[in-house]
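TICKET: design request
STATUS: open
ATTACHED STRUCTURE:
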């Protein structure tokens, strides 16, 4: 998170609107960069005239970025949670539920809805149902990483939190884009403006709730000891 976001964390004066404003620039730059990469990949597929191969490759990339997204989401959730509560078991429950819910929303549900809004015959895929055995190692490592990072000194924790969140946004952007392509929206470039705007929303809202709003809310609700320094 930015210094402005960190200041709000320390003062306990979070609002959803302030967090969205803090996270918005990350989403804009991440989605823009992601579209540039996706454009290059699409150009190569046009050269080869093989859309089936493009979809297959995009499906592989979607899973890779979706799994990595889970790592960063679980990490960010626990970093925020343990700023306000020391309850480890409740923190793990919040981390599991938050990462699984908002990663699925950002990477699968919202891209699916966006494609359907444009009349694309999108197929729906949810990894937490069909690929749970592949997801669990990434979720476990994310939770462990978040727990370890939350034990660092506050100065290092601030740096790690900023780095983790920036990568979280970027990875989420790639996962959402590759879901679109791999599940039916091959000709996304014809609606690049809509895709750009929609993906910013699909990234910034779930990631803001995952990294800050939800873990902070439950940590304060379930807190039974003073937050650790």
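STATUS: resolved
RESOLUTION: sequence designed for all positions
ATTACHED SEQUENCE:
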């Amino acid at each position: 998170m930015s210094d402005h976001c960190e200041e709000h964390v320390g003062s306990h004066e979070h609002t959803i609107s302030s967090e969205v404003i803090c996270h918005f620039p990350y989403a804009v730059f991440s989605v823009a960069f992601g579209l540039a990469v996706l454009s290059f990949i699409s150009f190569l597929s046009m050269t080869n005239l093989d859309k089936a191969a493009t979809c297959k490759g995009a499906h592989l990339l979607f899973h890779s970025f979706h799994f990595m997204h889970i790592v960063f989401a679980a990490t960010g959730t626990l970093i925020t949670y343990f700023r306000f509560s020391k309850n480890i078991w409740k923190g793990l429950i919040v981390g599991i539920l938050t990462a699984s819910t908002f990663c699925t929303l950002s990477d699968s549900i919202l891209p699916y809805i966006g494609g359907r809004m444009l009349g694309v015959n999108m197929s729906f895929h949810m990894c937490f149902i069909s690929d749970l055995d592949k997801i669990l190692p990434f979720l476990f490592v994310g939770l462990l990483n978040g727990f370890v990072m939350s034990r660092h000194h506050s100065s290092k924790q601030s740096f790690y939190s900023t780095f983790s969140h920036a990568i979280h946004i970027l990875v989420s952007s790639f996962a959402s884009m590759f879901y679109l392509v791999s599940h039916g929206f091959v000709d996304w470039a014809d609606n690049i403006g809509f895709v750009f705007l929609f993906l910013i929303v699909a990234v910034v809202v779930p990631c803001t709730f995952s990294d800050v709003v939800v873990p902070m809310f439950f940590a304060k609700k379930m807190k039974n000891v003073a937050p650790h320094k």
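CLOSING REMARK: The chain has eight helices and no strands. The CA atoms of residues 9 and 83 lie 9 Å apart.
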